[in-house]
Specification:
Immunoglobulin-like, 2 domains, alpha+beta, five-stranded mixed beta sheet, globular, 14 helices, A middle domain of Talin 1
């Protein structure tokens, strides 16, 4: 969930590539559309593009961490790149096969609706999955994975919310990180439905004016800090309803190969910002459950794309496997029974070691979308 991580770190969405660079983008740089983001402007060099693969190269010229989005109607996220720190350039690659009116947005401070601008996609294009059998198999396989996780998410959230409503605090505490496993594995898919994520996964200081603090983290605070409240049962019912809404929508979601690649990177960004700092589950300190689940989800997306990466860049696949193994080894050091140590039980050396391993994995993962796009 996009949040105050901007303050703490100075960061699929499922559909964004977060490949980093240092050069100032130009309109002709590799065909990319240059975006100059500042604290009060979002200057997009071109506001139209033919349907197909579209690349934005976003440079943060402001003083605050920012994000860049491409939205379709209803604020459906077509692509997102997060954690663009001042002076940094990051790339967003999206596949847009249908003509229409879209919107670009920069979000200084990584909050709010952002600085919006009109963007037009002209004509229609064949989807990558229509012309490449391997890519079609990858997206179909990953969609099956998403659907299996959603089924488990509905069931485990039901167990959690039932315990909350029964006032069984100990059981609800035990079920909280378990239910979140399935959310965190597919979080970029959930975030693509812009209205579900804020209600379900916002932390208290992320809540926009006029928005109620609800979802997993509101119940987390009730369970660990302030005790169950008179409206905790209502919050639990809403959480269950929102998760069931997600399950209904996820059945019909259409995925592109770039969404898989970009989602893998987005999940690692979640680890590198919210989880590794301990801000995500700040009341329960069950961050390592989320950490494990984000890594699992990222690896599932890469595994779906494995035949494609193996064919196009086998050295990259070898590197990815080695870096995933290194992160897995570190996580297993902190396993306790079926779960993990609390975040507060980690030493600063533990946190530093994991942060470095995740950063080392993030760099090769940032290359996957370009491989998939044939760049």
């Amino acid at each position: 969930m996009t949040s105050t991580r901007a303050v703490l770190t100075g960061t699929f969405a499922l559909f964004a590539l977060a490949a980093c660079g240092t050069a100032t983008p130009t309109e002709s740089s590799g065909g990319a559309i240059a975006v100059a983001a500042s604290d009060d402007k979002c200057e997009v060099a071109r506001t139209s593009h033919d349907a197909g693969t579209i690349t934005f190269e976003v440079t943060n010229k402001g003083s605050r961490v920012t994000e860049f989005y491409l939205y379709a109607d209803g604020d459906r996220i077509m692509g997102e790149v997060e954690n663009i720190t001042p002076g940094l350039t990051r790339r967003l690659i999206v596949e847009v096969s249908e003509s229409g009116k879209y919107q670009t947005a920069c979000k200084p401070g990584m909050q709010g609706k952002g600085i919006r601008g009109a963007f037009t996609v002209n004509g229609d294009a064949k989807k990558a999955t229509d012309t490449d059998e391997q890519l079609a198999e990858a997206t179909a396989g990953y969609k099956q994975y998403v659907n299996s996780q959603v089924v488990a998410l509905v069931d485990k959230t039901k167990e959690f919310t039932t315990a909350v409503k029964a006032g069984d605090v100990d059981k609800a505490k035990a079920l909280f990180p378990v239910a979140r496993i399935y959310w965190e594995r597919i979080e970029p898919v959930a975030e693509s439905f812009g209205d579900i994520d804020p209600k379900t996964d916002s932390r208290e200081d992320d809540v926009e004016p006029g928005q109620q603090f609800t979802g997993f983290h509101r119940l987390e605070k009730d369970l660990w800090v302030q005790g169950l409240q008179p409206d905790s049962g209502t919050i639990a019912d809403q959480l269950q309803s929102d998760i069931e809404d997600l399950a209904t929508r996820a059945k019909d979601v259409e995925l592109t190969p770039l969404q898989l690649a970009n989602g893998a990177k987005e999940l690692l960004d979640e680890v590198a910002t919210g989880k590794i700092t301990g801000e995500e589950d700040r009341y329960s300190h069950t961050d390592l459950w989320d950490f494990r689940s984000n890594v699992d989800g990222s690896q599932a997306a890469i595994n779906a794309l494995r035949p494609v990466i193996q064919k196009r860049d086998p050295k990259l696949l070898t590197t990815l496997d080695a870096k995933f193994a290194a992160v897995d080894t570190l996580l297993e050091k902190h396993r306790v029974g079926d779960g993990f140590k609390l975040y507060t039980d980690l030493t600063q050396d533990d946190i530093k070691e994991m942060s470095e391993a995740v950063d080392a994995l993030g760099e090769p993962i940032s290359q996957v979308a370009e491989v998939v796009a044939g760049k």
